[in-house]
Inverse folding.
C-alpha cells in the first residue's frame, strides 16, 4: 500500500489543532504561528494530492484510495478516495484556511482589560485549534467514500463549529451591552447546531435504511459508495421506487439544511452575522460546501431515479433561493447578514447547476463552489477588517470610507464585483456555466435565474455606495487603511479570482471527467443543439 | 499582434493601479503612451490589411482555450476584419486624443493616476469587445466597458450624485447584459456554439422564431449599452463623470457598442424581420426622445447627452433596415465619434474656464474669451447639424435616404421621423451654440464669491480639439470619395439597395431645408433677444423634457418603489414566517423551542448542554448501528 496521502492531508490540521491547543496561555503568538504553519503544511499536502491526481483518458474515477476495515460487523470501512470534484474541494479548503488564520490573527485575543481569570484561559489557542479541527473534518468528508464514515465527519464538524460561533463574536453587535451580544451569539450557535443536528438525524435514519437495503439484496450489507455503484451498474441492487425516494429525501434534507436551501436557510444569517469574519467565511465557503458536494456525490450517485423524480421540486427551490436570497440581501441593514443572504442566493445557483443534469450545469456548480469560496472570502474578510475598525456591522454607520482607506475600499469593490460575477473574475465562469447548463435543459428556469444577475449588481453596488462613497461619516476621519497583514491576506485571493476568471482550464480539466461519471450515474446526456452549426475550418 | 492591441492598455491599467505612489508623477504619461502604442499598432495592422484583397482581409488569432466543458468551448480568440478594424481605429485614435486632453483637464486632481488607470482599462475592454471572435468573449468586453464606465462616472465618489449615477448606469446596463447572456445561451442550444463564424453561417438554416428570439435579446443588450428606449435612463446621469469620460465613453465609443453588436449579428437579424422592425421602432423612438430632451436641458453636458441618444437612434434605425443600412450606420458612428467627442471636449474646455459651471444660462458671449474652443466647437456643430459637405451631411443623409427606401408608408414615416429629428438636431445644437458663445455674458459670482474668469484652455487640451475638428469637417467627404467606406465595409456587412421614392438629391435638399428651419427656430428664440439667466417655467412639454420625459418618475413608480416594498415585506416575512414555521415545526417534534430558550440563558450552560447533546447523538448513532 502506498503512502496514505489523503489521510496525511486530513491528519495534519488535526495534529495541528492538538498542538496549538496545548500551547501555554502566555505564548499566544507562538500558537498563531504554529496554527499557520500546520495550515500551510496542509496546503503542501493538498497540492501533492492535486499533482498526483491523474486527469488523463481512462484514469480511475476514485484515486489515491485507501481502505481499511473499521467496524467489520457492519461493513463500515475506513475508505478514502477522491474524484476530480473531491480534489478541487480539498484544494479549496486547504488553500483558504491559512488566509482565514491570517485574517483572524487578532480576533480571539483577550481584550486589554480582560485579565486572565485562570492560567487555563486560552481563547486564542482555542480559536485556532478549532479552525484546524474543522478543516480536518471537512477534508475527511470530501475524501470519504464510505457513507457511514462520511456521516461521522459530516456530524462531527458541528461541534468545533458550534464553539467557534458561540464563543468568538466580532464584538460589534447591534446591542451595545456585552451580555446582549453574548446572548445573540449563543442563540445563533444553538440555532446552527439544532438545525444541523436535525438534518443529521434524518440522514442517519437514511444511512441505516441504506445499509438495511444493501444487506437485503447483496451478500452482505455495505456502506461503500464504490460497491453500491458497482452493484447498481451490474443490476444486483435495486432499491425499488418507494424506498429509493425515501432514502433520497433523508440524504437531501440534511444536505439542503447545510447548503442551505430555502426554506431551511434561516440559521445561516444568524450564524454568519454573529461570528467573526473568518468563522463566517469558514461556514459559508467551506463547511456549507460539504452540503452541495454531498448532493452531487451521494444524492445523484446513490439515488439516480429519485433524483430525477425530485428534480422539478429541487429546481424550483433553487430558483426561489436565488431570487429570495438576493431580495433579502437588498433589505439588510447589517453588512454580514447581507453577505449571508447573498450566499443563500449563490447556493441556489449551485443546486440549480447540480440538478440541471448537464455537463455545463454540474461542472459549473463545482467551479461555483470554488469561486464562491474565494470570492466570499475576499469580500467578507475585507468587511471584517472594516467592522473591526469601527466596531459596527450596520451599513448606515459607514460612508465615504474610500476617502480615508482607498485600498480597503478598492479590495472591497473587487470582492463585491466577484460576488456579482463580473466577467474576468472566477465567479463569472461558473455562474455562466450553470446558467447555460440549466438553460439547455430548462429554458424557463435559466431565464428566471438570470434575474439573480441583476439583483446581485443591485445589492453589491448599493452596499458599496453606502459604505465607501459619498461624504465621510463623522467618526471615520481617522479610519486606517489596510495593514500589511491584511493586504497579504486579501491580495492573493484577488489574484486567484483573476486567475480563475482568465484561465480556468486547469480546474475544468480536473473537474470534467468527474462530472461525466456523475452524469453517467444518473444516465443523462447533454441535450443536442437544434441545428448544429457546420464546424468552421480551424 | 492583435493580442498586444488589447494588452498594452491592460498592462497600463494594471501597472497604474498596483504601482503605488511613485507613479504619481509619470502615471498619466505612461497611460497616454500605452494608448498611443495601441494606436500605432492599429495603424500598422490597418495598412497591412489594405495590402490584402477584400476576402483575405480578416485576421484570426487564437490565444488559448478559455472555458472548455464538454460541448461548451469558449476560446480567447480574436478576429480582426474591416468592421472591427474601423472600430479599433476609432477607439485608439479618439482614445489617445482624450488621454492627451485629460492630462490638462485632470491636472489638479489628486487621484489623477487612478483616473488614467481606469481610462486604460476602458480602452482594453473596448478593444476586447470589438476584437472578440465569439459572443462570450465579447460579453467580457461588454461588461468590462460597463465596469470602466461605472468607475469613471463615479470617479468623484465623494459626490453622492456621482456615486448614484455610477450605480444606476451599471445596474441598468446589467438588465441589458442579461439580454446578451440569454442570447449566448440561445446560440449555444441552437447552434452548439457561440463563435461568430458558425453562428452567423448557421443562421440561414435556422427557423425564424429562434432567430427572432436571439435578435430581440441582442437588441435588449444593445438598448442597455447604447442608452436606447427603454433602457435610456442612465446616460443623462452619467454626465456626472469627468468630461473627458463623457467624450470618450458616453459619446464616441462605448455607447455605440450596441450598433456594433447588431451590425456584427447582421446574419441573425436579416433572417428575423420582426426583430428588425423592433430595432427600427426603438431607433426611431429614441431618435425623437433624445432630441426632445436635448432641446430642453440647460446643462450643456446633458443637452449633449440627449443629442448622443438621438444620434445613436439614427444608427440603430439604420441597422434595423438590414444590409441597406449597416454600412451607413457604421459610417455615421465614426463621423459622430469625431464630432461628438469634439463637442464634449469643447464643453469640457468651457467648463474648465468657467469654474466647472455647466448651466448654459450662466454662459454667454464666450467666443471672445475662448476663440479656439469656439472655432473647434463651431466646426463640430456644423458637422452634426448636417451642414453641406461636412461629415454629418454625408452620413446622416445616407441614413435618411435608406429610411425612405424601406418603401411604402413605412418608408415615408421613417423618412419623415428622421427629417423631423434633423430639424430638432439643428434646433438644439444651435441653441447650445447661441447660449454658450453668443449674446451677453450672464455669469455671476458663485456662493463663495468667486467670479469665473473665462480663459482659453492649455494646448494639451486644445490640440485634441483641433484634431477632432479636422475629423468632423473632413471625415465624411473622405469616406464618400469613390464610396470608399462602402467598399471597405461591404465584404463584412453586405450591402443592399432599396427602392426609394425620392432621389438622393431630394433627400439632401430636404435635409438641408429642415436644418435651416431648425437653426432659424433656435435663433428666433435665443438669438434675437437676450436670454434669461434663469429658465422660464415653460409649458408642460418643456417641463417634462427637462425631467427627461419623466423617465425616472416612471421607473421609480413602476420598479423602485414596489421593489422596496417587496424587499421590506420579505425581510419581515423571513423573520416572522419562514423562520417561525421552520422553528415551530422543529419545536412540535421535540420541544426544541423551549430548550432553545433555556440554553440562551447562560454561556457556560450552553456549552455544557450542546456539547452533551452533540456527543449524545454520536454515541446514540453508534449504538443504534450496533442494534440494527
Amino acid at each position: 500500500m502506498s503512502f496514505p496521502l489523503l489521510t496525511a492531508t486530513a491528519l495534519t490540521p488535526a495534529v495541528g489543532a492538538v498542538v496549538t491547543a496545548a500551547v501555554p496561555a502566555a505564548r499566544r503568538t507562538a500558537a498563531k504561528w504554529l496554527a499557520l504553519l500546520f495550515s500551510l503544511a496542509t496546503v503542501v499536502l493538498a497540492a501533492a494530492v492535486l499533482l498526483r491526481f491523474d486527469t488523463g483518458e481512462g484514469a480511475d474515477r476514485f484515486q489515491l484510495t485507501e481502505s481499511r476495515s473499521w467496524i467489520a460487523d457492519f461493513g463500515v470501512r475506513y475508505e478514502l478516495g477522491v474524484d476530480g470534484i473531491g480534489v478541487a474541494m480539498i484544494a479549496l479548503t486547504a488553500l483558504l484556511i491559512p488566509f482565514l488564520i491570517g485574517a483572524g490573527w487578532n480576533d480571539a485575543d483577550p481584550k486589554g482589560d480582560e485579565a486572565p481569570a485562570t492560567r487555563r484561559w486560552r481563547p486564542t489557542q482555542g480559536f485556532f485549534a478549532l479552525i484546524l479541527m474543522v478543516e480536518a473534518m471537512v477534508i475527511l468528508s470530501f475524501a470519504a467514500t464510505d457513507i457511514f464514515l462520511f456521516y461521522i465527519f459530516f456530524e462531527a464538524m458541528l461541534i468545533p463549529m458550534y464553539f467557534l460561533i458561540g464563543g468568538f463574536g466580532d464584538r460589534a453587535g447591534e446591542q451595545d451591552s456585552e451580555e446582549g451580544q453574548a446572548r445573540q451569539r449563543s442563540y445563533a450557535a444553538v440555532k446552527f447546531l439544532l438545525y444541523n443536528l436535525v438534518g443529521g438525524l434524518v440522514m442517519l435514519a437514511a444511512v441505516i435504511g441504506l445499509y438495511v437495503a444493501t444487506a437485503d439484496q447483496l451478500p452482505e450489507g455495505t456502506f461503500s459508495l464504490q460497491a453500491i455503484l458497482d452493484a447498481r451498474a451490474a443490476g444486483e441492487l435495486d432499491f425499488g421506487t418507494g424506498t429509493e425516494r425515501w432514502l433520497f429525501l433523508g440524504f437531501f434534507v440534511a444536505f439542503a439544511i447545510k447548503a442551505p436551501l430555502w426554506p431551511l436557510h434561516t440559521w445561516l444569517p444568524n450564524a454568519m452575522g454573529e461570528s467573526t469574519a473568518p468563522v463566517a467565511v469558514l461556514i459559508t465557503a467551506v463547511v456549507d460546501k460539504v452540503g452541495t458536494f454531498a448532493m452531487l456525490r451521494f444524492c445523484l450517485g446513490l439515488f439516480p431515479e429519485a433524483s430525477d423524480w425530485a428534480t422539478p421540486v429541487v429546481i424550483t427551490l433553487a430558483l426561489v433561493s436565488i431570487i429570495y436570497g438576493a431580495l433579502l440581501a437588498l433589505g439588510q441593514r447589517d453588512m454580514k447578514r447581507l453577505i449571508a443572504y447573498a450566499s443563500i442566493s449563490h447556493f441556489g445557483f449551485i443546486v440549480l447547476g447540480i440538478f440541471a443534469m448537464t455537463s455545463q450545469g454540474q461542472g459549473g456548480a463545482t467551479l461555483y463552489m470554488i469561486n464562491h469560496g474565494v470570492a466570499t472570502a475576499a469580500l467578507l474578510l475585507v468587511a471584517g477588517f472594516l467592522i473591526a475598525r469601527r466596531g459596527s456591522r450596520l451599513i448606515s454607520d459607514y460612508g465615504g470610507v474610500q476617502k480615508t482607506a482607498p485600498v480597503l475600499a478598492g479590495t472591497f469593490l473587487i470582492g463585491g464585483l466577484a460576488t456579482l460575477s463580473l466577467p474576468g473574475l472566477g465567479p463569472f465562469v461558473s455562474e455562466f456555466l450553470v446558467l447555460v447548463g440549466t438553460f439547455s435543459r430548462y429554458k424557463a428556469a435559466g431565464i428566471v435565474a438570470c434575474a439573480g444577475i441583476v439583483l446581485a449588481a443591485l445589492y453589491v453596488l448599493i452596499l458599496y455606495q453606502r459604505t465607501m462613497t459619498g461624504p465621510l461619516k463623522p467618526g471615520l476621519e481617522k479610519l486606517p487603511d489596510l495593514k500589511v497583514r491584511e493586504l497579504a491576506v486579501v491580495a492573493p485571493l484577488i489574484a486567484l479570482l483573476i486567475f480563475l476568471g482568465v484561465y480556468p482550464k486547469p480546474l475544468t480539466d480536473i473537474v470534467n471527467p468527474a462530472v461525466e461519471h456523475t452524469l453517467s450515474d444518473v444516465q443523462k446526456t447533454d441535450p443536442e443543439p437544434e441545428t448544429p452549426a457546420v464546424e468552421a475550418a480551424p | 499582434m492583435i493580442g498586444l492591441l488589447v494588452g498594452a492598455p491592460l498592462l497600463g491599467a494594471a501597472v497604474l493601479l498596483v504601482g503605488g505612489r511613485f507613479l504619481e508623477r509619470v502615471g498619466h504619461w505612461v497611460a497616454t503612451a500605452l494608448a498611443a502604442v495601441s494606436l500605432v499598432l492599429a495603424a500598422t495592422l490597418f495598412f497591412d490589411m489594405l495590402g490584402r484583397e477584400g476576402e483575405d482581409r480578416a485576421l484570426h488569432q487564437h490565444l488559448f482555450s478559455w472555458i472548455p466543458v464538454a460541448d461548451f468551448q469558449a476560446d480567447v480568440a480574436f478576429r480582426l476584419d474591416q468592421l472591427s478594424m474601423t472600430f479599433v481605429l476609432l477607439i485608439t485614435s479618439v482614445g489617445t486624443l482624450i488621454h492627451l486632453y485629460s492630462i490638462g483637464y485632470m491636472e489638479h486632481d489628486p487621484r489623477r493616476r487612478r483616473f488614467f488607470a481606469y481610462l486604460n482599462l476602458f480602452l482594453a475592454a473596448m478593444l476586447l469587445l470589438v476584437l472578440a471572435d465569439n459572443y462570450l468573449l465579447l460579453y467580457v468586453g461588454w461588461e468590462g466597458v460597463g465596469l470602466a464606465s461605472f468607475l469613471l462616472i463615479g470617479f468623484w465618489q465623494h459626490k453622492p450624485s456621482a456615486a448614484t449615477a455610477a450605480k444606476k448606469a451599471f445596474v441598468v446596463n446589467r438588465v441589458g447584459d442579461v439580454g446578451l447572456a440569454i442570447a449566448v445561451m440561445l446560440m449555444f442550444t441552437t447552434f452548439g456554439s457561440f463563435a461568430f463564424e458558425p453562428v452567423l453561417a448557421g443562421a440561414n438554416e435556422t427557423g425564424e422564431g429562434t432567430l427572432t428570439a436571439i435578435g430581440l435579446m441582442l437588441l435588449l443588450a444593445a438598448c442597455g449599452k447604447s442608452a436606447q428606449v427603454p433602457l435610456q435612463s442612465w446616460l443623462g446621469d452619467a454626465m456626472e463623470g469627468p468630461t473627458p469620460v463623457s467624450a470618450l465613453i458616453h459619446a464616441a465609443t462605448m455607447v455605440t457598442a450596441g450598433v456594433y453588436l447588431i451590425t456584427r449579428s447582421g446574419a441573425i437579424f436579416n433572417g428575423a424581420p420582426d426583430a428588425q422592425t423592433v430595432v427600427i421602432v426603438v431607433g426611431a423612438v429614441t431618435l425623437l426622445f433624445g432630441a426632445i430632451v436635448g432641446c430642453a436641458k440647460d446643462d450643456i453636458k446633458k443637452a449633449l447627452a440627449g443629442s448622443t441618444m438621438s444620434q445613436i437612434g439614427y444608427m440603430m434605425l439604420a441597422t434595423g433596415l438590414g444590409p441597406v443600412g449597416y454600412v451607413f450606420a457604421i459610417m455615421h458612428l465614426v463621423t459622430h465619434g469625431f464630432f461628438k467627442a469634439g463637442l464634449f471636449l469643447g464643453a469640457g474646455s468651457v467648463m474648465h474656464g468657467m469654474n466647472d459651471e455647466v448651466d448654459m444660462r450662466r454662459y454667454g458671449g464666450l467666443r471672445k474669451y475662448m476663440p479656439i474652443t469656439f472655432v473647434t466647437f463651431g466646426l463640430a456643430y456644423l458637422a452634426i447639424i448636417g451642414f453641406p459637405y461636412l461629415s454629418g451631411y454625408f452620413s446622416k443623409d445616407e441614413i435618411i435616404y435608406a429610411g425612405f427606401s424601406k418603401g411604402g408608408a413605412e418608408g415615408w414615416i421613417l423618412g419623415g421621423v428622421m427629417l423631423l429629428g434633423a430639424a430638432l438636431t439643428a434646433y438644439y445644437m444651435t441653441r447650445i451654440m447661441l447660449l454658450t458663445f453668443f449674446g451677453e455674458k450672464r455669469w455671476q459670482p458663485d456662493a463663495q464669491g468667486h467670479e469665473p474668469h473665462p480663459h482659453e484652455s492649455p494646448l494639451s487640451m486644445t490640440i485634441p480639439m483641433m484634431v477632432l475638428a479636422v475629423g468632423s469637417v473632413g471625415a465624411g467627404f473622405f469616406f464618400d470619395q469613390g464610396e470608399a467606406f462602402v467598399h471597405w465595409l461591404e465584404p463584412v456587412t453586405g450591402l443592399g439597395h432599396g427602392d426609394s421614392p425620392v432621389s438622393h438629391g431630394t433627400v439632401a435638399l430636404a435635409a438641408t431645408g429642415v436644418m435651416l428651419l431648425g437653426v432659424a427656430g433656435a435663433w428666433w428664440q435665443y438669438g434675437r433677444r437676450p436670454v434669461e439667466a434663469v429658465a422660464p417655467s415653460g409649458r408642460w412639454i418643456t417641463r417634462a423634457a427637462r425631467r427627461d420625459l419623466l423617465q425616472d418618475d416612471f421607473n421609480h413608480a413602476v420598479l423602485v418603489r414596489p421593489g422596496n416594498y417587496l424587499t421590506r415585506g420579505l425581510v419581515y416575512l423571513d423573520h416572522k414566517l419562514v423562520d417561525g414555521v421552520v422553528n415551530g415545526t422543529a419545536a412540535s417534534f421535540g420541544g426544541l423551542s423551549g430548550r432553545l430558550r433555556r440554553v440562551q440563558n447562560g454561556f457556560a450552560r450552553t456549552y455544557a448542554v450542546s456539547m452533551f447533546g452533540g456527543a449524545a447523538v454520536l454515541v446514540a448513532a453508534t449504538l443504534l448501528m450496533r442494534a440494527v
